[in-house]
Known about the structure:
The chain is α+β, with helices and mostly antiparallel strands. The protein has a single domain (about 1-155), classed as Alpha-Beta Plaits. Helix content is about 30%, strand content about 25%. The strands form two sheets. Strands 1, 2, 3, 4, 5 and 8 form a six-stranded antiparallel β-sheet that branches. The protein has a two-stranded antiparallel sheet with strand order 6-7.
Amino acid sequence: MTEVVVGMGSNIEPERHVRAALGQLAERFGALDVSPIYTCPAVGFSGADFVNLVVAFETDEPIETVQAGLREIEAAGGRDRAGRDGSRTMDLDMLLFGDRVFDNGDIRVPRADILEYAFVLRPLAEIRPHARHPGNGRSYRELWAAFDRSGQPLTEISLD
């Protein structure tokens, strides 16, 4: 079994879409380890604040099949992949696939977002503090402690 870590985000009816996507992930992959949930401003475009979290699960499926499954869940939630930047009903990004370093032009793990965005690194550091980044070997706790948080505000929320 391989542990997969996925970043999840939504800024269109996020409570509804996050709950639905979590249900679909659990139905397809089984038990989920879910991080705390955060809101943050949209990055790279003007739009409503995003709700972001990180989810981990184990699978015996190949990386391409997992990626296809994530895209199916996005599509079921109404995700329009036509534009790269813009509001989203659901964004599911594979961050890690075990400790693999993989790039086929479509799937890239570890995903660069881990080292670039607070809304990815903080929840990852919370659910996997001692795990190590496959590229640089540092723990996610260490990476978060050294991360420049200026300009990337996060507010923890609950969907209850």
